[in-house]
Amino acid sequence: MRHDESGKEIDWQAYAPPPEAMNYGEPEKKQVSPKPPLKAKQPKQKKPRGRNGLARRVLLWLLIVLLTLSGVTASLAVVAAFRMNIAPMQPTHADIARSPSSSPLVTTILIIGVDGAIQNSRADALMLASIDHRTATLRLTSIARDTLVRYPGGDFRRINEATVGQHGSGSRAARLIAENFGIRVDHYVLLNFGIFANIIDAIGGVSVPMTTREINYLTSRTWLRRYLNAADLQRQMEQNGAVRLTGQQALMFSRIRTLDDDFARAGRQRIVMNATLQRVRRNPFLLVPLVFNGLPGVYTSISHARVVSLALSAPLLAVYRVAEHRIPAPGTFRNETRNRQFVVAPNYAENARLLRAFVYGR
């Protein structure tokens, strides 16, 4: 033991640090509080998809379908536009006595059927189709082929004597409609009866209701008697309420005239037209063979751009209701004989009023 300067003994133990403070070069361990035990990871629960989720999926699929149909329709429209023959409408409404009625919301198309070559043939069948976008209505007006009308120059003749102009123009018939019945014709579509039969065949035929007299006429008084059997057609009528006809058979049905009169003939043409529209409505895919096999040979004043525009609105036209009318209207004409020809002389003012009310709703 050592002594200090005064000679007292020094107690070194009193100055020594406590044993717990001496780590002898070992690092000091920190006190760590114990961690709580980990909980088991719970799987995420999927939120139930309610009506809103289902509605969103349905709307998404509907949007995809509509976009697809629009694309297909636009493509078919472009093909259709270039497969038809364009013959522009002549300025037929510029110099007539009275300005015909028209509307930006109603499109009028004169459908002209000729028997034989397109050029320099008579208009054997006339039907005015009007598309009314305000009321979602497609209106079909048959014009009797024996209707007496006033031609440019003042002479009166039957309307079916209006010949088709050069390059398949139907402007002459459009002018007669405008001048005699006060309706502006925006466009025309011209086809011969062979093309008409091709169109029906392109969509696989049509089903039309037939009377027993019409069945007997087709199977006994036309060349179709070699291919049709009256008993078979009658059985179809009893079972289905309609008879399935090919293009040639539908053409012959729509041209029956000696069985009754020209008004009944025009009515059968509307029946075939309506059946064609209904068939395409039920199966829009029939537009594909129609465009490629039915349209070549058709002449029209509708421009390529307008064809595409009308085709894009085809999905809307599929839900348009169809209404029918005829010229001359019942009770507004008298039968006459002129130049040893049977004619139907209409009351022009009354028929113009009725046609204007039917087409434009005024």
Give a written overview of the molecule:
The radius of gyration is 41 Å and the shape is globular. The N and C termini lie far apart (135 Å). A hairpin with a 4-residue loop joins strand 3 and strand 4. The protein is built from eleven helices and 13 strands. It is α/β, with parallel strands linked by helices. The chain has a domain at 71-192 and 298-360: Nucleotidyltransferase, domain 5 (2-Layer Sandwich).
Give a brief rundown of this model.
This protein is of the alpha/beta class and 362 residues long.
Task: Looking at this protein, list some descriptive labels.
362 residues, alpha/beta, 7-stranded mixed sheet, 13 strands
The amount of helix comes to 25-40%
Structural class: alpha/beta
Q: What is the tally of beta strands?
A: 13
Remind me, CATH topology of the domain at 71-192 and 298-360? Nucleotidyltransferase, domain 5
Taking the sheet with the most strands, its summary is:
7 strands, mixed
Strand order, sheet with most strands: 1-10-7-2-3-4-11
Oligomer: single chain
CATH class of the domain at 71-192 and 298-360: Alpha Beta
Distance between the termini: 135 Å
Q: Determine the number of helices (DSSP H or I, runs of at least 4 residues).
A: 11
Percent strand: 15-25%
Mean pLDDT, all residues: 79
Low-confidence stretches: none
CATH architecture grouping of the domain at 71-192 and 298-360: 2-Layer Sandwich
- Element pattern in H and E: HEEEEEEHEHEHHEHHHEHHEEEH
Q: Kindly provide the radius of gyration, computed on alpha-carbon positions and rounded to a whole number of angstroms.
A: 41 Å
Shape: globular
